[in-house]
Amino acid sequence: MNKTTRQKLAIDELYINPDNYRYIESLDNEIEAIIAMFNKIPNKKYDKQMKEMMNLAYDISRDGLNPFEFPIVWYDEEIQKYIVIDGNRRITCIKLMLQYKNNEKISTNVPDVGKIYNIKPNIDMSQKIECIVYENLEEAKKVLSKIHQDSNDGIGRIRWDAQVKRRANAREGNKDRTFSIIEFVKNNSLISEELLNKMNSNRWSSKLERVIGFAKFKTIYNITFNENNDIQYLDDCEQTFKMLSKLISDIIDNVATNNFRLKEDFNEYIEKLPDEYKSQVNKDGIAKQDSNESEESNDSDDSNLKDDCVYSTGDKPENDSSQSSKANIEDKDDVKNEKDLDGGSAEEPSAPKKITPHSKNANVALRLSREYTEQEYLCLGEKGKQILAELESLNYNCYPQAAAGLCRSIMEYTAKLWMGEFSEEFNGNQLATYFGKCVNMLRNKKY
Predict the structure, then answer these.
(1) Distance CA 182, CA 223 (A)
(2) Residues 390, 406: contact at Cβ < 8 Å?
(3) Exposed (0-12), middle (13-18) or buried (19+): which is 85, by Cβ within 10 Å?
(4) Other Cβ atoms closer than 10 A to 252
């Protein structure tokens, strides 16, 4: 049985291992071992090592050493020091911040080491570090192999794969774009058990990460991400799922994708991809078919855009002030109708406007879906439907302020309906779903 003890040792009692397996050959002393941690020649590899060592030093200064990973050491009678068998990088950072700060030989051979010297650690030279002390050097080396040789047929640690790392980072608040897409597909009610099993049993997410970086990904799928890397899409949820589930399935199956090593692979894949698995809307969220019809019927150029900006009733405001006046009148009408709903003595409200499919105009203010069904409007009262009908008939490019005002009116009206301020019954079963669509669309229109 291995003889080990747990001891607290001073920093200067520990000795960076000159015979570290990381080095090509054994070194003469601790100082040379520390220099070798950064490579001796400043090149790209040196830069990478320096960045990693700086990150480690910052982490130690902020959070201390990992309490679940004690340095493993062995006492060398010849030099009367504890040789660090595992934990050389960690102990090197501490020694640079404390014991060897501003050491001339290290500074000469590691040009950027001053960045580590300047980090303020949360420990001092008087504090001791808890270590596992092995009596036998060979036994300590056996443990070292178990730690650093990956799974080693189940004996060593099994490292996290890419998906596990992404999941852990997301829970720590560092979500990436690939994780957002994976979670969108996994959490969709339409996902099949077959695809879910594929996604859970294959290492494929790095291929998806490459695809997201290709320029054509955004063009073909109309998918972007906000500052928190949340997925934003222009198609409805069902179409977005259809596109992404097809892409992921093809990535996992490999045959159709050739692993997407190059953007040319993805371009070739897109050329062969049926249109039903591509975005059905243009960058403004308008159905491509509707947009094409609108372009064909519109002979005027951008200089005549103002002349084409009309309400569905045919009334054309002469200038921005008339737009403002109309908005004020609508606000007063809203107040009047709210009183009516509260049981006031005002005249009977007019019949609600009929909700109809979108017009062929490519500049409608808002689009929740390609077709309206009564089921989608259970969360709106009659007044809410009227506001929405008005919003749909308005050209938001010409009248952005009026469009924004109507959007706000819908939100305020729905909130008041939910709070019970009106006599109508509020049905909010689908409110979150359709409100989410609305917000997502506004974000993509950069409102």
Answers:
(1) 13
(2) yes
(3) buried
(4) 19
Contact status, residue 212 vs residue 177, Cβ threshold 8 Å: yes
Separation of alpha carbons 425 and 418, rounded Å: 9
DSSP string, 396-436: TTT-HHHHHHHHHHHHHHHHHHHTT-SSSPP--TTHHHHHH
d(C-alpha 221, C-alpha 235), whole Å: 9
Instruction: Please give the structure tokens belonging to residue 257.
Output: 């994708």
What digits encode the pLDDT tens for the residues 10-32? Answer: 999 999 999 887 776 778 899 99
Chain segment 35-58, per-residue pLDDT in tens: 988 875 555 577 888 888 899 999
β-strand pairing of 81-86 with 72-76: antiparallel
Q: Considering Cα of 423, then 427, then 432, then 438, what sign does the dihedral take?
A: negative
Query: Would you list the domain boundaries of the chain?
Result: 4-148, 163-277, 302-444
- CA separation for the pair 244, 231 (Å, rounded): 12
Q: What is the pLDDT of residue 97?
A: 92
Single out the residue of 309, 249, 244, 252 nearest to residue 277, CA to CA: 244
Q: Is the pLDDT of residue 110 over 80?
A: yes
**In contact, 293 and 362? CB cutoff 8 Å:** no
Buried residues in 308-331 as b, exposed as e (16+ CB within 10 A):
ebeeeeeeebeeeeebeebbeeee
- What pTM does this model have? 0.42
Q: How far apart are CA 371 and CA 373, in angstroms?
A: 7
| Secondary structure of 121-175 in HEC code, one letter for each residue | CCCCCCCEEEEEEECCHHHHHHHHHHHHCCCCCCCCCCCCCHHHHHHHHHHCCCC
Q: Which residues of 87-117 are buried (b: 16+ CB within 10 A; e: fewer)?
A: bbbbbbbbbbbbbbbebeebeebbeebebbb
Taking only the tens place, the pLDDT of each residue in 343-387 is 444 444 444 444 444 444 444 445 544 445 555 566 666 777 777
> What is the rounded CA–CA span in Å between residue 368 and residue 365?
10
DSSP state of 101: T
Residues 275 and 221: their CA atoms lie apart, in Å, by 11
Residue-wise pLDDT for 199-226, tens only, equals: 887 678 888 888 998 888 998 999 999 8
Distance, in Å, from the CA atom of 240 to the CA atom of 185, rounded to the nearest integer, reads 9
